[in-house]
Each structure stands twice: as structure tokens, then as C-alpha cells.
Amino acid sequence: MSSNSLPRPTTPAGRDALAALLENPSGAVVAVDFDGTLAPIVADPEQARAHPDAVPALAALAPRVASVAVITGRPAGVAVRYGGFAGVPGLDHLVVLGHYGAERWDAATSEVRAAPEHPGVTVVRAELPGVLERAGAWPGTWIEEKGRAVAVHTRRATDPQAAFDALTGPLTDLATRHGLVVEPGRMVLELRPPGMDKGQALLEHVRETGARAVLYAGDDLGDLPAFAAVEKLRADGVPGLLVCSGSDEVQALAARADLTLQGPAEVVAFFAALAEHVTPA
Questions:
Q1: For labelling, which of 27, 66, 114, 146 has a CA lying 20 to 30 Å from the CA of 178?
Q2: CA dist., res. 22 & res. 9, Å (int)
Q3: Distance CA 39, CA 50 (A)
Q4: DSSP secondary structure letters along 40-83
Q5: Mean pLDDT by 10 residues, the chain (281 residues)
Q6: What is the C-alpha to C-alpha distance for residues 35 and 38, in angstroms, rounded to an integer?
Q7: Are 157 and 141 in contact (CB under 8 A)?
Q8: What is the DSSP letter of 39?
Q9: Which helix (H) or strand (E) holds 114?
């Protein structure tokens, strides 16, 4: 993708949404997932960092739209650090909705606001090692502490898919006993409170900003609720563009997307090109 070209969405709804965004950028929300969309997927999530061109692209785009929102399952503060979003000129309109909206960081204030933690997370955190031990030996499987949620990764297991399949049932049972849900992803099973998803976070942000057009970019199963939210907004008359950060592991998003880009490098290039095609808000 050249610096001054915009890829053409493959669907009529996507083309209409892109046209609406270009025509009235000051009324548009651009929302994006972090891992796999702004940041390449890595074996160790603690080593994930935004693509080197992500911050310049977002800093160019943010002043030209109503809001840029990074929506992630990570704690908001972690996403801010790994993204390098703090103290960047041009990012005053950036917000990070962490823990699927339970936490919010605003670039304008550099403050994090958070809702109370679900009590079930504390219990699940304590019981999880025993549940994994009883489910069988899966070397390489490990637990990620996410504050308001906890995740089990199988990507580094000898047989990642077999470990994922074997653990889905026991982890679902554990989550259900304590009022949580299991969200599957790319070789990861996340246990978190119900009602926490990217779709709800996106809908609330769109309503808050009064957006008249929306773009959402994501790469994983956890982004499906956000895709559904954009489809709901379309039904309500708000144009929406669905962008998939392409992955051979997750076909469900690509099947519903208006535009598929090949990973964070192309997503970031798209945002940079978008910034060139809109006038400041």
C-alpha cells in the first residue's frame, strides 16, 4: 500500500462507510484492537509492542476525527506502555479502553478510570493451577495474569491445538461456577466477567461521542462482538467499516469484514493513508 492510496472495501456497506468517514471525519470514531492489529502477535504477550509506525499514524489521524479508541482485553495502563501512547503530540483524541471497557485511559489527562473488580476473578485465579493440573500435562501451557481477568495460553505447548481443545471444557466449567465466561482466542482461553466485551465498549464509546460513522479493526475471535456492534450501528443508520487484520488462524472475522489487511504493518499503513485523505476535525 503506498503512502497516499486507500484500499477499496469489498462490500457496498464498507464503501459507503469509508465515504461517510472521508466526508465528515469530525463525526467519526476509529476504533482498533491492540494485539494482532496494532502490535504483531508474539509468543510471550509481555513482549508485545505496537508496530513502529503505529504511533505516528495514529498521531496523524487522531486530530482529524472525533476519537481514536484502542479497545483491548489488556489492562489500560499496559496497553498504553506497550503502545507507547503517553505524551505523544497529536494523540489528545486517543482513549484506551482496557479490560474490554472496564478501564479507560485518556491521553488528554493521562489518567486511568476503572470499575470495581468482579469477585469471581479472585477465586478463579486461586483455583486455576489445580484445574490445569487435573486436566493433564500440557508442557508449555501457561497462565497470564490480566488483573480483571486471567488467561491460559497454549501457543507454546507441544501441540497447541490439542491443549486448547482439552482445556476448553474444564476452564469453561471453572468459569461458570464462579460467574465468569470463557472467551476463546488465538491459542488462548480467557476467563473474565460476563458483559465485558469489545462490542459493548465500542457501543458505549460511539454513544458518548455521538459518532455518525465508525471504523473498527481487529484480528481475533474476541473482536467478533465489536464486529456485531458495528453491524448493529449500521442497522440504526450509522455507517460502519469493518477491517480484519488478516490471519490464517481466524477466518470468522475475514468472512464478515469489508476490508482485509495483512497484519499490523498494513493496518498502520491504512491509518496513515486515511489521515492523508481527511481534513482536521
A1: 114
A2: 13
A3: 4
A4: ---SSGGG----TTHHHHHHHHGGGSSEEEEE-SS-HHHHHHHH
A5: 76 97 96 96 90 97 96 94 95 92 93 87 93 87 88 92 94 95 90 88 95 96 94 97 82 92 96 89 55
A6: 6
A7: yes
A8: B
A9: strand 111-114
